[in-house]
Each structure stands twice: as structure tokens, then as C-alpha cells.
Automatic annotation (TrEMBL):
<feature type="domain" description="Peptidoglycan beta-N-acetylmuramidase NamZ N-terminal">
    <location>
        <begin position="55"/>
        <end position="252"/>
    </location>
</feature>
<dbReference type="InterPro" id="IPR048502">
    <property type="entry name" value="NamZ_N"/>
</dbReference>
<protein>
    <recommendedName>
        <fullName>DUF1343 domain-containing protein</fullName>
    </recommendedName>
</protein>
<dbReference type="InterPro" id="IPR008302">
    <property type="entry name" value="NamZ"/>
</dbReference>
<dbReference type="InterPro" id="IPR048503">
    <property type="entry name" value="NamZ_C"/>
</dbReference>
<dbReference type="Pfam" id="PF07075">
    <property type="entry name" value="NamZ_N"/>
</dbReference>
<dbReference type="GO" id="GO:0033922">
    <property type="term" value="F:peptidoglycan beta-N-acetylmuramidase activity"/>
</dbReference>
<feature type="domain" description="Peptidoglycan beta-N-acetylmuramidase NamZ C-terminal">
    <location>
        <begin position="256"/>
        <end position="407"/>
    </location>
</feature>
<dbReference type="Pfam" id="PF20732">
    <property type="entry name" value="NamZ_C"/>
</dbReference>
Amino acid sequence: MRFITIFFFTFLAISHVEVTARIASSVQSRYDKPGIITGADQTEKYVPYLKGKRIALVANQSSIIGRKSSVDSLLSLGVKIVKVFGPEHGFRGNASNGAAVGNETDLKTGIPIISLYGKNQKPTKEQLADVDLMVFDIQDVGCRYYTNINTLQYVMEACAENNKELLILDRPNPNAYVVDGPVMTDDRFKSAIGIHYIPMTHGMTIGEFAQYLNGEGYLKKPCKITIVKVANYDHDKSYVLPINPSPNLNTQQAVMLFPSLCMFEGTAINEGRGTYMPFTVLGAPALKDKYPFSYKPVGIPGMSESPRHKDAVCYGLDLRKYDTDKLRKSRQINLSWLIELYNAYPDKANFFTPGRANQDISAFDLRIGTDQLRKQIIAGVSEADIRKSWEPGLQKFKAIRMKYLLYP
């Protein structure tokens, strides 16, 4: 209680008293309960270090302190934020997947917002010229094909090249319990949705992944990083995200199913994009005679404007009530749905969608990080044998991963 009391009265001493008190109350409530406390919520550990510096924040709608935007909260605490860098989906998280996002100025604060998913993916020397310290605070979900870890690497590269320190406000990985899938080992499969030699799910937080990038030579020059760790956290702890991390991960069910269902991008199956239940349903018009469940994808601005099978009725699997604890207990992605729908699909030659022109690499291969899984499914290899083929790569990666873990 002595710490909480000091923390509370420290807040009262700051100029924006009413706003700051509300932040303190929200964050303090987390300290009063034995539970996970994000790095961002532990303001006493880093706000004094930010004071007097020109701060650039890498953030989106998931970047919150208590219940408020990190940008608004830090400004109210006297932190000078000179610009914000936004990842895929933009600073406010309202751009469709894969859509280029432009630069803008925040109407509320007048702070420049620079997109890292538009003209440039990496902050430029000019963009960092008036920055003393970079702060990275974005919620991740633990998959190679979720592009926040790409943004992390590009930001670390820019900081290293321009001698800027990076402060990481760590957040739990809701899928940290699972390290699974084939490891990408061939540069031919690098793409905008995968640039790291890791399994489909890596089981690390952003802070841990930053240490991995530094330690495994992904950067020409190591980045100076400081990590504010998550309190009361371990990799097996369940974590319900307080804010949707992206437009199409709009429920906890979708977050938990994402590692398994995102595999279907690159196939003829719609994974719920174009509905308000993305990543919880699977279907295609061609499966009409195989499944009774149906839904119709449509264009939804800010989510999926041109989903696969737009305006056509899709038939398939409804996983909205699927018990995701099964995934947690198995510590595996679900491979059976992919095998089932491939076997049920009448036009198998067109199940996997084309990828790179003049190469035997499908869009599915780019997502998975190898062409082996596609070829195994076509050949009818059993799930057990497919998983067995993953093991050498997984065991090697897990041994490397252990060196960079911050949590049990």
C-alpha cells in the first residue's frame, strides 16, 4: 500500500490534475488485484525517464494506459510526444488488412502521425532527426504472419542506424502457450507477411522478440533496447485483450483462433473476412453440398472491403463456440480443419491460390513459410506425420528461444 500511496500522490503533483487522477485510478485498480499488469500501465517505471526528452511513439489503438490512449495519457503526464508512428491498420486501427496508410496529423493533439505501412516501412533518418527516444507500445498476438513483429524489426533497424534508444512497453502474448508450425528456413518464402526464420507461432512477447532480433543477428547493428516488463505474467497465463488488436480480430475467440484460421488465407476458403465474425467461421460457395452452416461475406469499410467470395453465400464451419481451451491444452495450432476442408473441396486443383508469378510458390506457401505443408496435404500425408516433420525445426527454434525469454 505504501507504493500505491506514493504512486497516487506523485500523479497529483502533475499539472493536468483531473485527467491524471483518472489515469491513476484506472491503473491503480490493477495493482489492487493480483493480475497481469502491462508495461505501459507501470508508468512509475518509465515516465520519469521520458520527461525532458522528445519522444516518438510507435502505437495504435491497442496502446493504452488504464482505459485511455497512451498518447493522451502520456501527454497529460507531461511527456513531450513529437510524433507517432503507426503500423498496419494505422494509428487508430481502422484501415483494412494490407491497405496502404498515409501520413496525417492528429486532429486532437496536432501531433504528426507517420505511417509505417505506406510510403516507408522503416522510420527514415529525417523522421528521427528531432527524436531523442523511441517508445514501442503495440499489442501482438504471437504469429509470424501478424505484421507487428516486422514493424518492430524495422523500427529497431532505424534506431540502431541513427543511434536512438528504443523503450519497449511490453504486453502479454495471448497465444504465448503455443510454439508450433513449420519453421521458415528459405529466403524464397520471405514476404510482407513473413520475414523471420521462426515457426508460424513463436510464443514470445514483443519484448522477448526484440531480444531475439538483437541476439540472432537480424540487425546489422544491435539496437539499444530497454524493456518495461509485464508484471505477474508467465507464458501459460490466459490474457483477455482489453482492446481489439486489429479490425478483424474483434473478439477474444478470433484472437485465439487466429493462428489456426489465418492459414486459410491463400486458399479458396473465406475465413470470415467480410463479416462481423472474422476468424471464427470458414466457408466457400463450393462447399454447399457438404455443410449446412452458411454466411455471406460483404465489403465492410475498415475491416475487409474486398473479401474472398464477396456477396456469395459460403458454406462451411462455424467455430464461434469452439472451446479454445482445447488449443491451449494441446499447445498446438489446429491442423485438422485445413485437412478437412481440403478433402471436402470439390476443385482441389484450385484450393491453394496462386502466389508469385513464374514460381511454384503459392500464396498459402508465403503465409506458412514453406511449400512443404501444401505438398503434404495434396499428397494425403497424415496429420501425425505432418507434425512429425515439423519437430526438428521446432526443437531447434525452442532451444534458441529460451535464451531470450523474460518470463517463465
